[in-house]
Amino acid sequence: MMNSQELIQRLGIKAHSPATAGDLDRIEHRIGAPLPSSFRETWLSIGECGLAACVSLGPERGLTVMEFFGPARILQDLDQFPPGVLPFGDDLMSNALLLTGVTKNATARVGLYVWNETKLFPIADSFAEFLSSLMPAREYHAALEQKS
After folding, report:
1. Degrees (nearest 5) of the Cα angle 107, 9, 13?
2. Is beta strand 62-68 parallel, antiparallel or unpaired with respect to 109-114?
């Protein structure tokens, strides 16, 4: 798995606001479960930030990640989702990036909740997998152009 500093460099993240251990402890207390270690490490290093990174969802489909939320926004948005679901960012269309299955005994997966379809689409089997699949938007679009 890519560490946070490599992720910052790869995605060209410039302005970011790392979370504190106390911030993440408050989130864990509120959800009643530990956060995945890869999530903790990323938020302690990067936290809230704007980015334009893409995740490939197939040969001609992608997702443009626009923002990772800070702890205050995560805590604020928790009430919009059922227990075990943690909002952590959004895409180009303001759909919610979510960790699902955030419980004491489950492996958290990453999904995208599309507001106008009221549907959750799976993206990755773990937060670490999600991070490793992120690529700069320009790199993603260049790869698409080469295929056509």
Report:
1. 80
2. unpaired
SS3 143: helix
Q: Tell me if 141 sits within 8 A of 64, measured CB to CB.
A: no
Phi, psi angle pair for 138, to nearest 5°:
-60, -35
Which parts of the chain register pLDDT below 70? Answer: 1-2, 56-61, 148
- Can you list the domains of the chain with their CATH numbers? 4-147 (3.40.1580.10)
Give the tokens for residue 83.
Answer: 């227990």
With tokens 């500093």, the residue in question is 5
Predicted TM-score of the model (pTM): 0.87
> What separation in angstroms does the CA of 22 have from each of 26, 29, 44, 128?
6, 10, 10, 22
User: What is the structure's pLDDT at 59?
Assistant: 54
List the end-to-end C-alpha distance of the chain, in Å, as a whole number.
Answer: 30
pLDDT score recorded for residue 61: 63
**What are the start-end ranges of the H helices in the chain?**
4-11, 21-31, 37-45, 71-77, 127-133, 137-147
**Burial of 37 (C-beta count, 10 Å sphere; 0-12/13-18/19+):** exposed
